Amino acid sequence: MSTIRARPCRSRAFGIIAGLALAAVAAFVLALMSGELAISVRSAAGALFEGDQSMEAQVVRHLRLPRAVAVFACGGLLATAGALMQVLLRNPLADPYVLGISGGAAVGALAAMLAGLASFVVDAAAFGGALTAMLLVFGLAHGDGSWTQTRLLLTGVIVAAGCGAAITLMLAIAPDTRVHSMLFWLMGDASGARRPWPALVILALGLVLILPFARELNVLARGELTARSLGVKVVRLRFLLYGLASLLTAVSVTLVGSVGFVGLIVPHLMRFVVGNDQRVLLPAALLAGGTLLTLADTAARTVIAPVQLPVGVLTALIGVPVFLFLLSRHRR
User: Looking at the domain that runs over 2-326, which CATH code has it been given?
Assistant: First the structure.
């Protein structure tokens, strides 16, 4: 009887994942076609697969393709990291930025911008700042060998507050010619993403690394005592969750800047659709996060073209009503 019941569940999960994958492909194609210069599906396919050398093909290959890959990877990274953080902290309001990683990345990136350094140095400084914040939070929260969700969360909040103060100071002393680019970075800006492929590889490797532990994540989500009683190595699993979620967040923030609400909303939305089984939730969140951010970035490029909006503004406009809807459906 259990085998007969399991088949519809597996087929439903497969159908949901397949539908999300098709939605991701459709969003990706739309991103390649949309913009000031409208490009047909045939021209976009020719640019990708047939070596077309027309102006449209150059736009697709050198401008829209890297940006579409970057925003999809960023959305997947944030959604996956958010789902892991919510299991790690057992807090429904946890998101990838809650432990101050984005604040550390912002401090590094804005310091490089303030110094007038090259774009690749800005990316390196953002990644270094994110790793520094990660190590600082981990060191302070785990300094005496004890590590609880509350202590980790409070340490992250304090580090994030300190980074926020540093960011405000740099914005206050920055010359007017640099404030605009600094603010765009803080709100999420994919226009400068030219090296997205490493982020896509890290996203795939992160999913491959965490999926074998999905059953243990399901148990950990029910509480530490339950997990220990069932033989889960909680300390090892916590290290893995914290390290992987921090790495995914650092790569995302380095690539596109601080994009809000994706890591908070998408895991909740997918949990509403597929349930809390991490074997299905994690790949579903990855695909949904990438699709959402790809569509948001496409809208940011086209709504009032040629002016481009920060993609983080649109994700916030989408995320707030969605989160309120989810709260109304689950009042407890």
Answer: 1.10.3470.10
